[in-house]
Amino acid sequence: GAGVSQSPRYKVAKRGQDVALRCDPISGHVSLFWYQQALGQGPEFLTYFQNEAQLDKSGLPSDRFFAERPEGSVSTLKIQRTQQEDSAVYLCASSFPRQGGTDTQYFGPGTRLTVL
Amino acid sequence: GNSVTQMEGPVTLSEEAFLTINCTYTATGYPSLFWYVQYPGEGLQLLLKATKADDKGSNKGFEATYRKETTSFHLEKGSVQVSDSAVYFCALSPTGFQKLVFGTGTRLLVSP
Questions:
Q1: CB pairs below 8 Å between A and B: how many?
Q2: Residue B97 CA: distances (Å) to CA of A11, A14, A113, B27, B31
Q3: What integer pLDDT is reported at residue B43 of this predicted model?
Q4: C-alpha distances out from residue B74 to A89, A113, B11, B50, Å
Q5: Residues of B whose CB is below 8 A from A31
Q6: Which residues pair with A30 in a beta bridge?
Q7: Whole-number CA gyration radius for chain B
Q8: Which portions of chain A are predicted below pLDDT 50?
Q9: Which residues in chain B touch residue A110, judged by CB atoms under 8 angstroms apart?
Q10: Residue A10: φ, ψ to 5°
């Protein structure tokens, strides 16, 4: 079956522009995660959905970052008024949660955002 | 807080050499531990995991043992191949949470 897909794969934005990044999780996966990976660093958690409910948004760096998953499937990460420090690869992951356990997260290829 | 510390790279080895990539963690409770791998031009893939103390995760000849007494989860492989060249990330999932906390990654370069 298809894996996690993300679009666009590359995005160049001028400082101050708004961007929207899309994630299509694996069909049937309940949990969806967004991570930000700066160059040469490990991914850092941004936010987590279980179905359409955003259960954890503790990693969002500012109120310019907003994520939604209105129908419990596709998710969009929106960044308003982009700044140069937002330049990074944005990774989406999905998983099918087991009760009482920690589940394997399957990652998409990422969207590389460059803010000029 | 929760954090993961990995040895800095790059790690450069000849084919068939023994590999160790060190990983230590700080966490409350009993986290699950993971190694993810990122091959050139590809996305992150789970390599192996362990969910409780003394568990050994293994896959593709790689192994790592969850050592609670030393808060470590070192990655080992007895004989590396050129195709193992990639960036390896150690990660933990804190108790009661689904999110992953990653280390900074270690680049492995294997030459023929």
A1: 58
A2: 31, 36, 28, 12, 9
A3: 87
A4: 27, 32, 14, 12
A5: 98
A6: none
A7: 13
A8: none
A9: 43
A10: -135, 140
Tokens for A47?
């936010």
Question: What are A7's two structure tokens?
Answer: 């679009």
Q: Which amino acid is at A43?
A: P
Looking at every residue in chain B, the average pLDDT score rounds to: 94
Beta strands in B7-105 (DSSP E): 11-14, 19-21, 23-26, 32-38, 44-50, 56-59, 62-65, 75-77, 86-93, 101-102
Give tens-digit pLDDT for A75-92: 999 999 999 999 999 999
Residues B100, A101: C-beta atoms closer than 8 Å: no
- Identify each DSSP E strand in chain A by its residue range: 5-7, 10-13, 19-24, 31-37, 44-50, 53-56, 65-68, 75-79, 88-95, 106-107, 111-115
Task: Give the nearest partner residue to B51 out of A33, A41, A102, using CB atoms.
Answer: A102
Provide the pLDDT for residue A70: 95
Token reading at B18? 């023994």
Residues A6, B56: Cα–Cα separation, whole Å: 33
Nearest CA in chain B to A43: B102
**Residue showing tokens 């996966």:** A29
